[in-house]
Amino acid sequence: MGLVRTALFNWAFARHHQGTLVFRIEDTDAARDSEESYNQLLDAMRWLGFDWDEGPEVGGPHAPYRQSQRMGIYADVAQKLLDAGHAYHCYCSQEELDTRREAARAAGRPSGYDGHCRDLSAGQVEEYRAQGRTPIVRFRMPDETITFTDLVRGELTFTPENVPDYGIVRANGAPLYTLVNPVDDALMEITHVLRGEDLLSSTPRQIALYKALIDLGIAKRIPDFGHLPYVMGEGNKKLSKRDPQSSLNLYREQGFLPEGLLNYLSLLGWSLSADQDVFGIDEMVAAFDISDVNPNPARFDLKKCEAINGDHIRMLDVKEFTERCRPWLKAPFAPWAPEDFDEAKWQAIAPHAQTRLKVLSEITDNVDFLFLAEPVYDEASWTKAMKEGSDALLRTAREKLESADWTSPEALKEAVLAAGEAHGLKLGKAQAPVRVAVTGRTVGLPLFESLEVLGKEKALARIDAALARLSA
């Protein structure tokens, strides 16, 4: 979800300024990235409604847009940085690095890389190679303070002792994020980068690398950076990729609308106005200003997300709503057989269902009573509704409903109201046993509209079945 929020802010920023959105796939981690994950990412972007001006499936002047297909480019740039003295080979083992870091911490000094291999003699290099050591490539940080203006956080300053030399190529020749992203930004002429706050500490390193790339004639400028606030989950902890509530697929399966989800995610650090939480994506694009993003962490509130999604469900045209519900009206979600689904009943009940849902997946339980031969009784609902005297009430309600006009929900309401009055009950308590008898639950769609759609014969048969169960 954090990735989606970042993509949303980049997309809205580019569209607001009529800019060019570049969609680049960072798939250099062979152990984690696969063709399946690549296709899932494209599918997610399409489902969310994001379009891009350059990238996979679209192409562009800076192709390819998958980093796994650009390895030769990174190797070439790394060699140029070495040749120009902006980078050097580091032969330190992990054990040596750990030992020196611990010593630095014990002495109260910064524990970053200490520059041990910065200026090795030819003899030292030969000795390391004779030991069979394979070096990594480190970037040589300049001994200067780095200051830049963050689009979200304002002016930030990093002193040299807090930004040591860092690795850009592993010992096996694989390029690291710290190299590939600045190189791609430079070659793709990226002007603005909006990304997560967790990458803020790498920005001064990358700015120094951009300067080196400018020196080599590879880059034209340093992009403007905006670092977006953390999204917090349960217990005010940063929402991790491993948290179940972080998975976009989970929200798709539950029936969140992309427009509802994006509306809520936009509120995690930004707002359209102080008194408007619900709005369309076009409204967001028109109003989006990166300087309005709040740098403080934003907490993910599932209940508010659901509420906003429910608002977007109600904003749909009824025909659009009926179509969006389709996946949850068939296997594997629907408990009824395909041949028992009745399109006319679905079309009739849909407008009433639309006013009640927070997520589309709720439709299955709300309409199952229409398509199942018998209602599935929720035992807690049965116990709650079928109190002493419920059998007498149901018999009276059946009698009143038998003679009612089944083309009018109001007439059905009057019948149940009259049954309740005959037993000294108000409508709310009188309709509860009827609802459970007909639908199996105490909570659901408007009862009298549901009775009309279900039909007289089935509804009365279910009241009879409930009476039989009570007598048993």
Write a structural description.
- The chain has 472 residues and is mostly helical.
- It is built from 20 helices and nine strands.
- The protein has helices at 2-16, 35-48, 71-83, 94-106, 122-130, 177-187, 203-215, 248-254, 258-266, 281-287, 302-315, 318-324, 343-354, 363-371, 379-385, 390-402, 409-422, 427-439, 447-454, 456-471, and strands at 87-90, 136-139, 146-150, 154-158, 166-169, 192-196, 224-228, 231-232, 298-299.
- The strands form four sheets. A three-stranded antiparallel beta sheet has the order 1-2-5.
- Strand 6 (192-196), helix 7 and strand 7 form a beta-alpha-beta unit.
- Zn(2+) binds at residues 90, 92, 117, 119.
- ATP binds at residue 241.
- Belongs to the class-I aminoacyl-tRNA synthetase family. Glutamate--tRNA ligase type 1 subfamily.
- InterPro entries: aa-tRNA-synth_I_cd-bd, aa-tRNA-synth_I_codon-bd_sub2, aa_tRNA-synth_I_cd-bd_sf, Glu-tRNA-ligase_bac/mito, Glu-tRNA-synth_I_codon-bd_sub1, Glu/Gln-tRNA-synth, Glu/Gln-tRNA-synth_Ib_cat-dom, GluQ/Sye.
- This is Glutamate--tRNA ligase.
